[in-house]
From TrEMBL:
GO terms for biological process: mRNA catabolic process. This is CCR4-NOT transcription complex subunit 9. One of its GO terms (cellular component) is CCR4-NOT complex. InterPro entries: ARM-like, ARM-type_fold, CNOT9. The lineage of its organism: Eukaryota, Metazoa, Ecdysozoa, Arthropoda, Hexapoda. Pfam families: Rcd1.
Length: 282
């Protein structure tokens, strides 16, 4: 029964009069259809209508005036892309077809409205799903398509849900050996990340988020692993990470607290006579 319903909705993607309903039903009931992604990929003619739904607003999003029903349809289409990115049988082909590039116009746009924020959020969710696969081909794709600068801009300028996604994605890129090596190849790449992390920490001191803070600490720790930039990072590291500004919030996450203590040891302990207790966040 479930399979019959899924096939019916996939077929209805071809009809403009039923496409909106089909997009909604497939996205809402996607968890009931574990084979949705492979089946959608195998029927490329129907998938093209999903992709067309997304690309149809690329030329108008800069205006920031989109009909709510159109935004909703595109969000449903983005959820179906999320399914393709998440499924192990379609992820590699999804990347090989460069389909994540369809998301980039929603990430590049500078101004914010509630509609654009929704599209940006759904797009980042697809990228997050890709990096969660821990596959280096994902990291290589993001690096080759210059995703990091876009990610950094979202981290410091958008609403908190998108900030969380963007900061987590950056963390996953830097946790990968290829990702951290690429971003530590030049002073420009390293400096761009360090400057944006510092700006993000400044905003967190006014509106704390333990989840974002933990990702930031991990990013700093990975950058600090590079001997070439470790000394420079001592200058870039915000003082608020050392003066107890976040101590009360870090009490809520023992892992984040430990990560910060280890980061401070890594950066400063060889330069001072203090013991590791000097950096404990009590």
């Amino acid at each position: 029964m479930y399979r019959e319903r899924m096939l019916k909705w996939i077929e209805e993607l071809a009809d403009p009069s039923t496409r909106g309903t089909a997009l909604r039903e497939l996205s809402v009931h996607r968890e009931s259809f574990p084979d949705l992604a492979p089946m959608l990929w195998q029927d490329m003619s129907k998938l093209m209508f999903v992709l067309q739904e997304i690309s149809s607003i690329h030329h108008t999003i800069h205006l920031g005036l989109l009909p709510p029903d159109k935004v909703q349809r595109v969000c449903h289409a983005l959820i179906l892309l999320h399914c393709l990115a998440a499924h192990p049988e379609t992820r590699t082909a999804f990347l090989a077809a460069n389909l994540p590039l369809l998301l980039y116009p929603f990430l590049y746009i500078q101004h914010s409205t509630s509609q654009l924020e929704c599209l940006r959020y759904r797009s980042l969710a697809v990228i997050e799903t890709l990096v969660l696969s821990k596959e280096q081909q994902v990291i290589k794709f993001l690096l080759s398509t210059k995703f990091v600068p876009v990610c950094l801009r979202i981290m410091v300028s958008k609403e908190e849900p998108c900030k969380k996604y963007a900061t987590f994605i950056l963390e996953q890129i830097l946790l990968d050996d290829i990702g951290v090596s690429y971003n530590c190849q030049t002073y420009e790449r390293f400096g761009l990340i360090a400057v944006h992390l510092r700006e993000l920490v400044s905003s967190l001191s006014k509106k704390p988020s333990v989840k974002i803070l933990k990702c930031v600490i991990t990013c700093y720790s990975r950058l600090a692993d590079n001997p070439r930039f470790r000394r420079m990072l001592r200058r870039y590291l915000p003082y608020t990470l050392r003066d107890g500004t976040f101590a009360a919030y870090l009490q809520l996450d023992a892992s984040a607290k430990h990560c910060l203590t280890m980061l401070l040891k890594k950066l400063f302990e060889p330069q001072t006579p203090y013991t590791s207790d000097a950096y404990a966040l009590d």
